[in-house]
Amino acid sequence: MARMREPLLLPFLAFAAGVILQRWIEFNRAEVLMAAAALFSLALVASRRDAWWLAWTTSMLGFCATGVFVALLRQPGPKPELDAAPGELVTLTGCVIDAPRFMPDREQFVLELSAGARARVNIFLREGEAPPHLDYGDRVTLEGRVRKPRNYGNEGAFDIETYFARQKIFWTVSARTGAPIVREENGCGNPAWGAIYRVRSWLLDRINRLYETDAPKIAALLIGESAGLEREWTDSFRKTGTYHALVVSGTHVTLLAALLTFFLRAFFVPQLPALVLTASLAWLYALVAGASIPSIRAAAGFTLFLACRFFYRRARLLNIVAAVAGIFLLWDPGQLFDTSFQLSFGALAAIAILALPLDQRYLDPLRTGLRRAQDVKRDIRLSPAVAEFRVELRLLAETVSLRTGLPSSWVLKAAAWSIRPVLVLAALMLVSASIQLALAVPFLVYFHRFAVSAVLANVGVATLLEFGISTGFAATLSGFPPLVWVTRWLINRAASLAEWHLQWEPDFRVPDPPLLMILLSLAALAACGWAMRKSQRLALALAGLSTAAVGVMILFPFTAQAGRTELELTAVDVGQGDGLLVVFPDGTRMSVDAGGIPGFGRKTKPMDVGEAVVAPYLWSRAIRTLDIVAITHAHADHMGGTMALVDNFHPKELWISGLGKSAELDALLNHSRSRGVNVRVLRSGYRRSFGAAELHVVGPHPDAWNEGAPHNNDSLSLSIRLGRRTFFLPGDAERSLEEQFVADDSIGKVDVLKVAHHGGRTSTTFAFIEKTKPTLALISVGDGNRYNHPHPDVLERLQSHHTSVLRTDRDGRVTVRTDGRRIWFDTYRWSSAR
């Protein structure tokens, strides 16, 4: 049988296929183990009889069965339980098992309560209050409110529960502001980890002293401490596809290992000791930099490369990628579904499969031709193409020499030195283009972006940041002021370059592509990698097919998932807030509020619910644009995510009530107008038809006036009617506004009521329910919220009128539809409480 150049690739792919298969199909552990043993035994017998195809087929099936078995074996057990209700104030004692992270208004760390049971603790600080001094290995007792991590109940939502559970984190704790934190006398933790975290703390202190205002950027670049980074500063890196170069990743470890190896070899350290020392320091750096999974993978890859050199084996990149990926999947098969795992190994595979073969065919001969170009005798030992290049180069040098009088040897050397940087740039462009081609589909699926300028931006931005890493470490360790200045300059020039590339970026986001297009692009790309060694023309054609499929996904000619003859109201689960989507029978799409998390004056900006929650749901339904964005009133839990909707979905109109003033509202209005959005102030009496449906604004009253802080009764209240059915969306209208609706008879029988103020007791009064007699009530509310919403009194009033209640905290996303006669609904999850 022919010898394979990457013998680990197919076994890894088969193993990974088994991990994927276990995710979709239930298997019995014992049966799978017996099947794997039988398949490997059959493969051994077939190989002894030289039945190689049978041997390979059965062995690959055996690796697939092994993947299923390992995935079954590594399935997480039952989650630990804590005897505390959501939001209950409890006293906890545990071990600090990481270096605390500092933000402008809080300190954050992980507390291990017992083996395999951890909580992420936030200590919120008052203005001017110093954070408690905590280190890895401190055993502490503190008071805090405990909650379990909870996924948002929408299609497209990030699985935060699994993300935390894989780190053995099962609770979040908000420590009581100002409450004492008692440090026990007996420490805990691992002494080795303690030493590593002390080194990290020392580096962080040095960075803060040396770089001052630029310290958060340098800390993120050098040791992965991104807590202090402002999103505004990193946005240009995200949008141009260069964010990976800003925070510690496998690239950082590889770069530092390569630089250290170069310097050790330059000082005549023998190769093997140099590689051993470099690998040891690569592991130390990966651990000091926060032990992020990408950096650990890079250190493991470098160690495997060292092993290959020790045994005098040629290290093939694709083989190393398969080996390292397989080792990590054996340890934790769930990593296969992590975005970082897929992007890291996808990028490396692209370099190995696409960039290196093209480099070896087109660029390496030119590099070879430049070596000792004046030596004519070498030509005969080189390929005809390389020899021809050398002859042409010498002829050019002689021509220039005749015209200028300079010695031809000087001209030849100058030409060689000028061509080498061009070849380096071409190699970098080739690597960047290969990675962008390979990762185009994951970027569309996970980030809904396609960075047009990424190929060029990565070459420039990444190069500047890589130099910044080198000078940054030298400056941090030495404290030499010129190196500090150079590092600042490199980081800021990289940011400026990333921002300059923004002008080429498209001003749109891409919804979830159809599965068929994803599979077509990935299959063409995989076939391209296979064809690269057979026929590069065929490989080029397949790469073109994959690129065309990506182009179709970017242009997105697919229809959004929305009925064309029905009226739809969807309450997106945004936690404690409102985020509604209305789809009219004529296809017009309107969002009413977009959720948000009140900052309560904190300096650290809360999560953008519009970007992280509402937008992914809309993209999951192939919605690319909104026609109208409406804000009922200017409270953060209603308008906090609106800026993201304006940026991502380009609405034509923004509706507001015009009541209440705030800096956030002014910023939103100014930003919307700058993007060409028509801002409209609406009051009761405004009517508008959308196909067969009619929308009627019933509040606030035209004479209402509020130039102060926003109030609940500022709410824009909307009644939407189709046929015999009416939906009513009152925002956060409270008792006085509801009494006005009842008194002036502006609202009658309602079929579907979006309950005001998340079910607060000051809304949804008995008189209002008696007037509207809703059949179905929809409550948008956060799970275990501290306001006790929905209030039992409100639920009792609704129940007394035989109104069915749907709640986003229990049911997740709720969608109600009507054709004007019938009403039907569906939810993301069915609540066991109903």
Distance separating the two termini: 64 Å
Principal-axis shape equals: globular
| Total helical segments | 26
> Strand share of the residues?
5-15%
Radius of gyration, in Å, reads 31 Å
What share of the residues lie within helices? 40-55%
| Major sheet: arrangement of strands | 13-12-11-10-9-8-21-22
Number of strands: 22
Average pLDDT confidence is 88
| pLDDT < 50 stretches | none
Largest sheet: 8 strands, mixed
Q: Class by helix and strand content?
A: alpha/beta
Can you walk through the features of this model?
The chain is built from 26 helices and 22 strands. It starts with 8 loop residues before the first helix and ends in a 7-residue tail after the last strand. Helix 10 packs across helix 11 (317-331) and helix 12 crosses helix 13 (384-404). The model has no long low-confidence stretch (mean pLDDT 88). The chain is globular and about 105 Å long. A hairpin with a 2-residue loop joins strand 14 and strand 15 (693-699). The chain is of the alpha/beta class and 834 residues long. The chain has an 8-stranded mixed β-sheet with strand order 13-12-11-10-9-8-21-22, covered by helices on one side. Strands 14-15-16-17-18-19-20 form a 7-stranded mixed β-sheet.
